[in-house]
Write a structure and sequence with these properties.
Catalyzes the oxidation of 5,10-methylenetetrahydrofolate to 5,10-methenyltetrahydrofolate and then the hydrolysis of 5,10-methenyltetrahydrofolate to 10-formyltetrahydrofolate. GO terms for molecular function: methenyltetrahydrofolate cyclohydrolase activity; methylenetetrahydrofolate dehydrogenase (NADP+) activity. This protein has helices spanning about 5-25, 45-60, 75-85, 105-110, 125-130, 140-150, 170-175, 200-205, 255-260, 270-290, and strands at about 5, 35-40, 60-65, 90-95, 160-165, 185-190, 205-210, 230, 235-240, 245-250, 260-265. By secondary structure, the chain is of the alpha/beta class. The protein has two domains: about 30-115, Leucine Dehydrogenase, chain A, domain 1 (Rossmann fold); about 140-270, Rossmann fold, CATH 3.40.50. Helix 7 (about 170-175) links the parallel strand 5 and strand 6. Helix 1 (about 5-25) runs parallel beside helix 10 (about 270-290) and helix 6 packs across helix 7 (about 170-175). The chain is globular and about 55 Å long. Bound molecules: nicotinamide-adenine-dinucleotide. Nicotinamide-adenine-dinucleotide binds near residues 192, 211 and 217.
Amino acid sequence: MTEIIDGNAVAAEIRAGLADGIATLADAGVTPCLATVLMSDDPASQTYVSMKHSDCEEVGIEARDYEIDPEAPADDLYATIDDLNADPSVHGILVQMPLPDHVDEREVLRRIDPAKDVDGFHPENVGRLVAGHPRFKPCTPHGIQKLLAAADVETEGADVVVVGRSNIVGKPMANLLIQKSKLGNATVTVCHSRTTDLAAKTRAADVVVAAAGVPEMIDGEMLSEGCVVVDVGINRVEADTEKGYELVGDVDFESAKEKASAITPVPGGVGPMTRAMLLWNTVKAAGDAEAVDVELP
Ligand code: NAD
């Protein structure tokens, strides 16, 4: 029987576990606070930000909303970041990507105080992760580690293939999995758009993490019997539904399920974990900033 790894259930456990840390902070008179900054008219970005706010509300994190006209000069965004960096009541800052073309995304990532960088994309935090002493782990790969642990998947000694080398998923995933740690200690191969014979690589893997953004590109033929499949992809494809589309992953779920011993679905797999780990990082940021010893799930 293939195990369908339930990201909604594991994310709910993480949120419940965070309640203890939030209560400890409350005893010390601290309410963790996440500031989100949106500089976009894109409905998807607006939806992501509003979901982050409702997640915060549910667990008792204060969420503050900053919106900047997408036509405004980049300096308006930089000034907002500077103000949030200087505000001691704000523990986490999240600038929703993508940004308008006239804004330098790298400058934005560098500008956020690394101690408030709950996405974990500041170069200092990336460096710390690579060096093996992370402050904030990026939410999606951190969530995947928690998901694998919850499904009792041992990464120690496992051959893991990560498909995708982006800065937000593929690279930090590989970096986390090679760390000398309980949820690491894997042997990792990172594949990407220039990889030759991807199927040979994925077939040799005990665990495949698919993060390419290509609908259903990994099917059962590309997998070995009994492997574990983590599908990060969220792709809109045209479909005969009310909305005119449906969301599919990077994995062809039906054929992959026939081979895998465990697999994450889309939706309901990695997505909810990404959301939960943002809360996790915000609670950690508050504990660190206020020197309160917070236990994290
Ligand atoms: P990206 O476009 O930045 O990176 C995609 C990577 O995949 C690139 O490194 C590219 O080299 C590689 N790639 C592309 N085509 C390939 C191919 N045919 N074979 C092998 N490698 C190939 O994307 P991203 O931001 O890393 O996101 C990847 C997917 O994960 C997207 O579908 C995105 O929507 C989804 N995503 C989901 C979550 C979540 O919480 N579930 C979070 C982030 C991203």
